[in-house]
Specification:
The chain is built from four helices and eight strands. By secondary structure, it is an alpha+beta fold. The strands form two sheets. Strands 1-2-5-6-8-7 form a six-stranded antiparallel β-sheet. It has a two-stranded antiparallel ribbon with strand order 3-4. Strand 7 and strand 8 form a beta hairpin.
């Protein structure tokens, strides 16, 4: 997590700016957290610890996104217990690793996306609470 300005970063996204602002609103509402920059290209909301294969622990956003060149990359959504079910109704997308990729928000059902984000945040918060 860095102290860089999310708004300055988003203003550099050009034609993706409106989609980024919409994702920010959805994720902020679902998480109850303010947007923060993680590294130089990820906008994240909230934080939870993750354990790497070598045993070290670092914080990672509960949910987040990055406006990559080929697609909007969304992080943390696999935490939703209904991830696969929602993907069937989402619209055009790709999944790889722990990420969900969409070209534009206009291509997907935003109510399904909002539900997916909300469920992922709720599931992650439950897992964090159980771990304490």
């Amino acid at each position: 997590k860095t102290n860089a300005s999310v708004e300055v970063f988003l203003k550099k996204t050009g034609d993706r700016y409106a989609d980024c602002r919409t994702l920010s609103r959805i994720m902020a509402k679902a998480s109850g957290a303010k947007a923060a920059m993680w590294g130089n290209a990820i906008v994240g909301f909230g934080a939870h610890p993750i354990v790497y294969a070598d045993g070290h622990v670092e914080d990672w956003p509960v949910v987040g996104f990055s406006p990559r060149k080929l697609a909007l990359t969304l992080y943390g959504l696999r935490a939703s217990p209904n991830f696969a079910k929602h993907l069937k109704r989402l619209g055009p997308h790709k999944v790889g690793g722990g990420c969900l990729y969409v070209k534009r928000l206009a291509d997907v059902d935003q109510s399904v996306l909002t539900t997916l984000v909300t469920e992922a945040v709720q599931a992650r918060k439950k897992s964090i609470t159980r771990a304490r």
